[in-house]
Amino acid sequence: MAIPANEPPMQLGGHLEKSRQNLQAWLHSANSGTTTFAVTRWWQSCWKWWVLDVTRSDQPQRINGGAEFIRKAGMVALYRPNLRFEEWQKEGGSAHESWILFTASGPMLRALNALTNPHGYCLFEDPESIAPQRIGQISRELFSRQSGFEWRAQAVFLDLLAVVATAKPTAPHLHVIRTTQEIPVKPDLQSKVEKHIRSRIAEVLTVEDLARHAGLGLSTFAHTYRKLSGETPYQTIVRLKMEAAKRLLQQDGLSVKETAARLGFSTEFQFSRCFKRMEGRSPTAHVRAMTEKGGTGPVVSNQEK
Questions:
Q1: What's the mean pLDDT in 131-153?
Q2: DSSP characters over 246-266
Q3: How far apart are CA 178 and CA 160, in angstroms?
Q4: 217, part of any domain
Q5: 3-state helix, strand, coil in the chain (%, to 5)
Q6: Residues 272 and 282: beta-carbon distance below 8 Å
Q7: b/e string for 259-281 if b means 16 or more Cβ within 10 A?
Q8: Which of 3, 157, 196, 202 lies most in the core, judged by the most C-beta atoms within 10 Å?
Q9: Are 258 and 302 in contact (CB under 8 A)?
Q10: Which of 53, 44, 132 is nearest to 82 (CA)?
Q11: How would DSSP label each residue in 92-146?
């Protein structure tokens, strides 16, 4: 395809070799939710498909008749077709699990077989919670069955398989999965994020907004930011809004209603509830206490909602 004369030349591009043009992986089903157990037993599974699953709680498990071990919460497991594995279920207990069943052939099958050699399974650490997020997204698409759902589900499924197939080994049968976007640690990430939040303090900000500003994928940004700052991006948004709220209330003498509007809250009630959750008292009570201690600014007269 010729590039028009008035268009800049392409800077990035490439092609796929024939061996990589058909990865041949098909999603069969996906489920995500909480199961409550009716009886105490070892529950045995043996599927004719590949299985990738993750649980949010510690779970006793046996694989192919082997010794019992505790699979830690958040650990992802990949099982080959026709592999027998057992999970301990206790009457009245419950587990939140997410899993997909799928088939594979060609290059993808070879990659999965390499991961699960020689015993037919592999476990993955998932510090960014990639698997439950992706499987949850696939499950929602299959449940909604809205126009185009099968393509969206398959796209997320292939994205998940790409992350799994390129997982890094850390021990026998154990790998770690991360997003394909490898980034160096950015020590100034927190300061840049906080500066961006302050510059848009009057807006309704989301974690997605911050990730886009940082030029990172959502899960990579959230994981990296928390590792650097010790708090989630959402907690930073709320903290900085509350710091601004105290200045507006105490120093500028704004009412609770005016402060809520200035900081992007939809209602005075929503702002007051958020303020009380963070500070342990209502905005009005906070200003009154600061004034009694000799702080600046008038007492806010609005009645607490």
A1: 93
A2: HHHHHTS---HHHHHHHTT-S
A3: 10
A4: yes
A5: 40, 20, 40
A6: yes
A7: bbbbbebeebeebbebbeeeeee
A8: 157
A9: no
A10: 44
A11: T-EEEEEEEEEEE-HHHHHHHHHHHTTTTEEEEE-TT-HHHHHHHHHHHHHHH--
Residue 61 is assigned to a structural domain of this protein: yes
Strand-pair category, 174-176 with 121-125: parallel
pTM attached to this predicted model:
0.58
Task: Determine contact, residues 141/156, Cβ cutoff 8 Å.
Answer: yes
Same domain, 117 and 228: no
Phi, psi of 158 (to 5 degrees): -65, -35
Contact 257, 268 (CB under 8 A): yes
Owner of token pair 């969206």: 152
Which residue has tokens 């998932």? 126
- Are 121 and 37 within one domain? yes
What's the domain count of the chain? Answer: 2
